[in-house]
Write a structure and sequence with these properties.
The longest helix is centred in the middle third of the chain and has 17 residues. Helix 5 links the parallel strand 4 and strand 5. It contains six helices and six strands; from the N terminus they run E-H-E-H-H-E-H-E-H-E-E-H. It is α/β, with parallel strands linked by helices. It has a single domain, classed as Rossmann fold, CATH 3.40.50. Helix 1 runs parallel beside helix 6. It starts with 6 loop residues before the first strand and ends in a 5-residue tail after the last helix.
Length: about 190
């Protein structure tokens, strides 16, 4: 019997909150329409985990603490609407534009699957029965490499991020429609 949990791995910027390049101010965080409702629905059957590249830290535009404050604001806004994030994984590196210790070719920066694989190990997740939802090709490729099903949403970049090296299993208008696909309400 498989006791492993199912998870919905969600990119944050452009999927849960409005995409604003290099968001560093918690006061500018805005939830996307229906995102909290989608997560609340997913909470009933799936772990919901944020998997997010946050290169503003690596580029020296903010500190790790500031990036975490932005994420805390996201969690706060979701909680106010009855939605819960079970865990958050962020990569602060950038292999080209990073400065100091942040300029590395790491295994955690999407499109590599490091954050998803770490979450799966730490939370006992069955990747085969899990989903990765994102607005960028890198999100989709990361999910594919980790062995999850993938959903590209039209919010945020909507896949128009300059890369074409990954094809999603599903496409959805937004996170709410992605949740319907994950929960089997929409095929």
């Amino acid at each position: 019997m498989n006791n492993k949990k199912k998870a919905a791995f969600l990119d944050r910027d452009g999927v849960i909150i409005e995409e604003t390049k290099f968001i560093t101010d918690p006061d500018k965080v805005r939830l996307l329409d229906r995102a909290a409702d989608a997560i609340a629905r997913l909470n009933k059957e799936y772990l919901v985990i944020i998997i997010s590249n946050q290169p503003a830290v690596g580029r020296g535009m903010c500190t790790e603490e500031q990036a975490k404050k932005v994420n805390d604001k996201v969690l706060e806004l979701l909680a106010e609407e009855g939605a819960k994030i079970d865990a958050t994984y962020m990569c602060f590196h950038h292999p080209i534009h990073g400065i100091g210790n942040y300029k590395v070719e790491c295994e955690c920066r999407k499109p590599k699957p490091g954050m998803i694989l770490k979450a799966a190990k730490e939370h006992g997740i069955d990747l085969k029965n899990s989903f990765t939802v994102g607005d960028k090709t890198g999100d989709i490729k990361s999910g594919y490499l980790a062995g999850t099903k993938t959903i590209l949403v039209s919010t945020g970049y909507g896949g128009d991020d300059g890369f074409k090296d990954a094809t999603p299993d599903y496409t959805a208008k937004d996170l709410y429609e992605a949740a319907e696909i994950i929960l089997g309400d929409k095929k």
